[in-house]
């Protein structure tokens, strides 16, 4: 777990911040409550949350529709993600799995390959190797020692 991790994060209207934060927070094994503008709570995140729950993270939905995440028991567990509603789900999972020395997860459908290319390039800039074999993404690297922004 990160020292000085934020207990609450406000993401405003940013779906990108919301979705990517879920993967980053889970990868860092944080316990954090996320909030934002009411309209954002109506946008889809359930497929991403389902995949992160399969890895051991626990989510609590509050009355405003946002989630508190408890990822203290998250782990390197294979899951298959449905990213048909947002490629940001897949990017969040790439960030999540990049906190493990090696990992693999699957995607059964995705909205934008180009969006994934941007995320892969960003992680490669941090020294993470990502290989795609059919619907599986294989991550080789260790982001934990290289990032301290959450």
Descriptive terms for the model:
150 residues, alpha/beta, four-stranded mixed beta sheet, 4 helices, 8 strands, 26% strand, globular, disordered C terminus
**Mean residue pLDDT:** 89
Kindly report the spatial arrangement of strands forming the biggest sheet.
1-2-4-3
Biggest pleated sheet = 4 strands, mixed
The run of helices and strands is EHEHEEEHEHEE
Low-confidence stretches: 145-150
The computed structural class is: alpha/beta
Which value, in Å, is the CA radius of gyration?
14 Å
- Overall morphology: globular
Write up what this structure looks like.
Helix 1 packs parallel to helix 3, helix 2 runs parallel beside helix 3 (87-97) and helix 3 (87-97) runs parallel beside helix 4 (113-125). The termini are close together. The protein has helices at 15-27, 46-54, 87-97, 113-125, and strands at 8-10, 31-35, 58-61, 67-70, 80-83, 102-110, 129-133, 136-140. A four-stranded mixed β-sheet has the order 1-2-4-3, covered by helices on one side. The model is unreliable at 145-150 (pLDDT under 50). The longest helix is centred in the first third of the chain and has 13 residues, at 15-27. The protein is globular. The protein is 31% helix and 26% strand. Strand 3 and strand 4 form a beta hairpin. 39% of the residues are buried. With 150 residues, it is an alpha/beta fold. It has four helices and eight strands.
């Amino acid at each position: 777990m990160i020292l000085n991790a934020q207990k609450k994060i406000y993401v405003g209207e940013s779906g990108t911040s919301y979705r990517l934060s879920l993967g980053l927070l889970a990868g860092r094994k944080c316990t954090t409550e996320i909030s934002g503008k009411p309209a954002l709570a109506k946008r889809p995140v359930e497929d991403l949350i389902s995949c992160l729950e399969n890895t051991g993270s626990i989510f609590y939905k509050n009355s405003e529709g946002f989630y508190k995440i408890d990822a203290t028991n998250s782990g390197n567990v294979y899951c298959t993600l449905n990213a048909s509603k947002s490629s940001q789900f897949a990017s969040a999972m790439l960030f999540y799995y990049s906190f493990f020395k090696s990992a693999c997860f699957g995607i059964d459908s995705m909205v934008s390959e180009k969006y994934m290319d941007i995320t892969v390039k960003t992680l490669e800039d941090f020294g993470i190797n990502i290989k795609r074999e059919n619907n599986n993404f294989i991550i080789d690297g260790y982001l934990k020692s290289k990032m301290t922004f959450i």
